[in-house]
From TrEMBL:
One of its GO terms (biological process) is riboflavin biosynthetic process. GO terms for molecular function: 5-amino-6-(5-phosphoribosylamino)uracil reductase activity. It holds the Pfam family RibD_C. This is Deaminase. InterPro entries: DHFR-like_dom_sf, RibDG_C, Riboflavin_Biosynth_HTPR. Residues 2-179 form the Bacterial bifunctional deaminase-reductase C-terminal domain.
Amino acid sequence: MRKLTYFVATSLDGFIADPDGGFGDFLFEGDHMTALIEKFPDTLPAQGREALGIDVPNRNFDTVLMGRATYQVPDGLPSPYPHLRQYVVSRTITDTPDDVSVIRGDVLEEVRALKAEDGLGIWLCGGGKLAAAILPEIDDLYLKVHPIVLGQGIPLFDGAFPMTRFRHVASRPFTSGVVSMVYTRP
């Protein structure tokens, strides 16, 4: 069975984006980016991969799952991750490129079906509401904690959900101030 990993940047106060869905306050330069590119090149959008000359096979994920707001970030691409199978969870989106599928129904059922398939992992790349809705199926958390306090915005988990325990697996501080923290289900 494949794993679902919530791999996301977060502020010190637990926000994955500002109130408008932007993430321009997060750090995009520094040694944490070098590590990200080396270990997780499959998490870079097409324009980033192209600019950096990255053309390697996917190492960790072959599928990406996004909430509507994550998919429709300002200046976003209509197909941000063409090197992955792309799924957007939305009841309102009606028009996407052929390589972006829209999940409109029971998202937990759809995620369970994706996890039952063969392949690499599934990356939940954003969507606080989506993360809360599918928390029972999240196997791993990979948090890139940035040294910023936003004060408000889109929470890491946004909505009602039961208390859920994870076990700390690893931490890695970077000179940029970002700390990667990895958790898994016990």
